[in-house]
UniProtKB/TrEMBL annotation:
The keyword Phosphoprotein does not apply. The keyword Coiled coil does not apply. One of its GO terms (molecular function) is hydrolase activity, acting on ester bonds. The lineage of its organism: Bacteria, Pseudomonadati, Pseudomonadota, Betaproteobacteria, Burkholderiales. This is SGNH/GDSL hydrolase family protein. Residues 1-28 form the signal peptide. It comes from Limnohabitans radicicola.
Length: 280
């Protein structure tokens, strides 16, 4: 029998431990979320307030517009709305909207059948809107700038792109249009984010056809015409699709729908030619 001396035993043990150490694998870090490629918005979350959810929600009308212009007549994009009545941009917990098993984790299809969704990320883009006057309110303007950045950073961390929805002026205060546009443009450029110029589209529509009411009697919330105009502006800005001639009219008279489609497209083209499109 051969005897191994104690130093040799220690050497063998140390080599064995070293060998074990080299084979152990550190836990793999989760892969980074793939950033949304320009023009590839297939799913979008709308984060805002009652300006979005009036008239069965603006995102629903956008879905109909997208379906009407698709080649197969089927919905080719998913839009989900997360709104709080009267909310400002800081009321929303953006991180929570990306929580696994949370928003958009399942859908109802067919005869109330539940389908559990699987995807790398729930949304390609998140469209945000502050309260109607917050961006220009002396006590809340700084909050708008602060949370537009915070939310944009959170959205990008999850591989999506931030989008800002420029709200419109109250019907009795058209002077709100220019400062709202200025603040949204400023924040969009600061965060390299796309801005949807809905507020300017409202003003342009009124200038051309004041007979088409865009805001209800409370002087703030949209009529069906206003919601439709907003949806057309989103179609033109985010999806880069010309709404002119789209067969979905939300039941509006043909001439009214045609006017709103044209205003949305003209406003978007002019605005982005002058101010850029951010990262989208």
């Amino acid at each position: 029998m051969h005897h191994i001396t104690r130093p040799a035993v220690l050497l063998l043990l140390s080599l064995g431990l070293a060998a074990c150490g080299t084979t152990a694998q550190a836990p793999a870090e989760p892969p980074a979320k793939q950033a949304t490629a320009p023009g590839q918005i297939r799913s979008m979350l709308w984060v805002g307030n009652s300006f979005f959810y009036y008239n069965n929600s603006m995102h629903g009308h956008l879905g109909q517009l997208l379906m009407a212009q698709s080649d197969n007549g089927k919905r080719n994009a998913r839009n989900v709305s997360a709104t709080i009545s009267g909310s400002g941009i800081n009321w929303h917990d953006m991180e929570a909207y990306f929580k696994p098993g949370g928003v958009s984790s399942y859908s109802f299809v067919g005869d109330n059948e539940v389908r559990f969704n699987t995807f790398d990320k729930p949304f390609d883009a998140v469209m945000m809107m502050d309260c109607s006057q917050c961006p220009i309110h002396p006590k809340l303007q700084s909050v708008f700038h602060e949370f537009a950045k915070k939310h944009s950073d959170t959205v990008r961390k999850h591989g999506a792109e931030p989008v800002l929805f420029m709200s419109w002026a109250y019907s009795d205060k058209p002077e709100m249009t220019a400062p709202l546009a200025a603040e949204y443009t400023k924040v969009g450029k600061a965060n390299n984010a796309l801005v949807v110029p809905a507020g300017l589209a409202f003003a342009n529509s009124v200038a051309k056809r004041a007979d088409i009411p865009l805001i209800i009697g409370d002087k703030r919330h949209p009529t069906l015409q206003g919601t439709y105009l907003g949806a057309c502006t989103v179609l033109a800005s985010v999806y880069k699709v010309n709404p002119v001639g789209n067969k979905y009219t939300a039941g509006l008279p043909a001439d009214v729908a045609a006017h709103l489609q044209a205003v949305a497209w003209e406003t978007v083209q002019k605005y982005h030619a002058e101010n850029g499109r951010g990262s989208l």
